[in-house]
């Protein structure tokens, strides 16, 4: 496993589940506990990655990548972010908090589109992604997730998928969380924002307490 000085924490999960809102809370909490924090997002987080993000999420009629092209664009964005931002920051001891990472690929491209775990790992092998120390998965029924996205308007290409797709994605998150229960925690994102923030606090606090006592 990749040895790093800093902690790598990922917020992942369903569309409209509040990750963008909660990542700011997570960042504040980690800073209040004395950690220096770098936040990033996927796809994106670098100049090249942000260009790739535009191609990936463009509305359906503008750009329609094949499943292979979608996978390659996502992996290209991840490679750039991992090697030029995440690894250097972790090596310097920063806590890196990412809005989505590899688990999104297992859920959306794996469970959603039907790519096998082996195929995703083959692409990932070339990228050398980092195993997060902790992933918080923001869980939301697919219907509610779609309602929140619709209320915001202008759905992007992936947001325009149907209910079946998002139900498969959600099952993917559940399966992965069950398999990796020591590193992946489900957060009930159907509650109001302050209840979700409290759940984020509890999950991070519990994790940091264990992490710091292991260092003593
Ligand atoms: N993707 C992929 O397919 N494969 C991969 O490997 C990776 C990504 C890395 C990224 O788009 C897309 O890329 C994503 C998966 C795919 N697409 N889909 N579908 P994105 O970054 O635009 O999507 P996102 O990460 O899901 O962001 P989001 O849609 O903005 O959702 P969010 O960050 O989780 O939630 P939010 O922006 O904080 O809140 C969304 C709305 O809900 C907003 O109006 C809030 O006011 C509201 N909200 C938030 N929390 C609550 C609560 N608790 N109650 C009620 N309303 C709330």
Automatic annotation (TrEMBL):
Which GO terms fall under biological process for this protein?
Answer: dTDP biosynthetic process; dTTP biosynthetic process; dUDP biosynthetic process
Do the record's keywords include Nucleotide-binding?
yes
Entry keyword set: ATP-binding, Kinase, Nucleotide biosynthesis, Nucleotide-binding, Transferase
The record lists the catalysed reaction(s) as: dTMP + ATP = dTDP + ADP
Its cellular-component GO annotations read: cytosol
- Binding of ATP occurs at 13-20
Q: Would you indicate the residue range of the signal peptide? A: none
Q: Name one GO molecular function term.
A: dTMP kinase activity
The transmembrane residues are: none
What EC number(s) does this enzyme carry?
Answer: 2.7.4.9
Query: Which Gene3D superfamilies does the record match to this protein?
Result: P-loop containing nucleotide triphosphate hydrolases
The answer to whether the entry has keyword 4Fe-4S is no
The residue ranges of the Thymidylate kinase-like domain are 11-198
- Note one Pfam family from the annotation: Thymidylate_kin
Tell me which family the UniProt entry assigns to this protein. Answer: Belongs to the thymidylate kinase family.
The free-text function statement in the UniProt record for this protein reads: Phosphorylation of dTMP to form dTDP in both de novo and salvage pathways of dTTP synthesis.
| HAMAP family named in the record | Thymidylate_kinase
Query: Which NCBIfam families did the record assign?
Result: DTMP_kinase
Return the protein name.
Answer: Thymidylate kinase
Give the encoding gene's name.
Answer: tmk
